[in-house]
């Protein structure tokens, strides 16, 4: 399946190859740039090219690769940093220097590295697809290897191997490998989906206490520039109570990724005490890297995340920002001259997004264990205006909405999560869980906290007119308490030790403020003047 | 590779800055073309899109006088910038042609003007303090080496005086100076004269790319890329610390919109193209430092916010890419404050790493936070003052009002003076001492 280039428009290239299938990979030009078929016509195909098309000429050769865009799934992914096509960026730097060169093909994993396989079963066992065959020690992570298909095992290897070596053989004569490619756009299979029932503890007080996220759930936080999206994503990546974190830097800044890498190697996972990088995979396509690869990057990321979910892990996918993905989709759509929908986005924006969100969830894996994949995505609405199509499309499917508020950010209240507009659809189950596992007072204190914040909002309008002096004593007290809640509880400085707050400490802190309110209220009733009340 | 230049006389249409040429063989995306008119006028262009044997060309030079009978030569090469240390001290137009009267230098090397993205793993975190001499920046919104920090101005505000002050006064931590790469896009004459005088009076080195208001609009898309190719060369091949000043990005974006409209692309917000974010990122992201290499590219783009609106797509998309912003305020300007920096919406996101002991001073963070907090409080109270009047306010609130006034008049305002970081921070301490807020 070879042919020639017929035309080039932005990131898309038309080739005259027939017999291609949709989403097949194609190599174009003498530089051998990789792309993916996005449109087929008789005798020609349009390819979305993952690299800069500048310098590509009409009539140059093109060849179909007879396989869809795939990620390699195997031991060795943890701690890695990949671009949107799973090219290992550190290796790329070693080979090509500090600037990313186009058309360079590098295998995602180290094929020379030796691993140790410890079989769990024996030759002669009958297995079904997804059954456990053994483990590979990847640092402290015991990386399970499962049967790729059902049948009888003829032989299982024990001890050292490299990724190219089989770790066993099935009775049908086919070898079993610890590495397998997976087409990124296809969700990985599982037995069935379960409802999210456990919380995903983030260590962020406002989130865990007021708008909890569930393991297997989805959350978005839209916010204008500088409202703290990236800091929040990175804080959650550091502190979330999960086994594996996949962090997708999608169309954002290079310096932020350098910062993340530098910090993560020095930090420990607060739950396991292990180096943070051992549980983290980073996928990054910065804003100045090719847009078509940016579009693919979130699928690369989610496929890796599903891979760990299928091992029975709790996985968290963080993406910053999904808007940049949507913009890449728009750019490709517009170079295909498709009929645009709202604000130029293709009309399939919301269905693509919904299908992507669908890859989150709690599942019973093929092997019968339970794994979860949660997603927390940032959204960058133009002008901070939430009525725009990407925010709206996300809102239709996401389970939690954290509204990042520019006014709060300007006042340096971080995380700038607006406590009136935000919501969590997982609230009832999660609050019940915290009641049962942290303290039975959780829901009651939570109700009080919200009540105080609501009262403050109403009083604030009055105070704007009459001044705080004009309020009644009880109301002035409430204003003071609400201010304490905002400053001491809802605010959480990402640069201080306070950046992580475990649920018991979260509850203790808010309970103390609420108790102060009750005490002081009593004293007021007994005639103590507001200015004489003890502080906290 | 083609063996010779291809020439065609097959222009089928001309639409604004765009040409369609037919029956072209093996055109290359981004290929540079030279256009010659029978009357002797010439222009350069670049291939934007190819459909079979039809090439769509964007013309960068002057399009006046262009006809369908023009001769188009395809060079088989994408646009490259000539590079050498000899660019220093020179002034070029938007097409990299010297306009300072001296002959063109001999290039040592050529590089594609778009550059290549820095591999994120190769980046070094920007963390070295740059002293601009302005308190509003140094003390409250600290700039660091390798950062991109735009100035958001509005029509009529003294952005150019402020930029000039920075260009003149910026010093590295060790006291060293920068090489300034100055890129002017659509500069009116009075600004041109102003900046040329500033550059001439500079102690350190500079290179300038000047596109004036009357010069071809499309060169505004080229000039920043030339400037950045030069900056990257000086920084990463020669180990220099480069400060790139681009003014005015609003003119850049308008040029981008003009091409987009001519291409009949679907307009996005306010008519700007949907790919403007990626396009701007391809410029701004070229700032940075590289691990294990000396040299740095720091960027100070100037953006004039149309209608003073920070949510306008140009400042908005810029803010989404850069590492903070310095926002100028009309109100402060009217009060006679120079530089009229409103510190509340301003932010340097990389400040945290660039300050503290060993970089600026150990008490920097605390002073900055306190100043910020009290000023924010004072500003909030101004609204209340407007309603209840000063007399109706508590003594402590009146103190904060006075603090906010003094903060603007004495700390932010500094006229033509240059303040070093100690002077800036000590000024802050003195101010806080005069208006002690009630204990929190
Ligand atoms: N939790 C926090 N603690 C302290 N400072 C914070 C916190 N969150 C945000 N900030 C401040 O806000 C700045 C902007 O945050 P961040 O980079 O996360 O914004 P963003 O929403 O990702 O912006 P953009 O959309 O432009 O990428 C940070 O540099 C920091 O100064
Ligand atoms: Mg961000």
Automatic annotation (TrEMBL), chain B:
SUPFAM superfamilies: P-loop containing nucleoside triphosphate hydrolases. Residues 354-438 form the ATP synthase A/B type C-terminal domain. Residues 11-75 form the ATPase F1/V1/A1 complex alpha/beta subunit N-terminal domain. The chain crosses the membrane at residues 170-187. Keywords: ATP synthesis, Hydrogen ion transport, Ion transport, Membrane, Transmembrane, Transmembrane helix, Transport. HAMAP family: ATP_synth_B_arch (MF_00310). This is V-type ATP synthase beta chain. The gene is atpB.
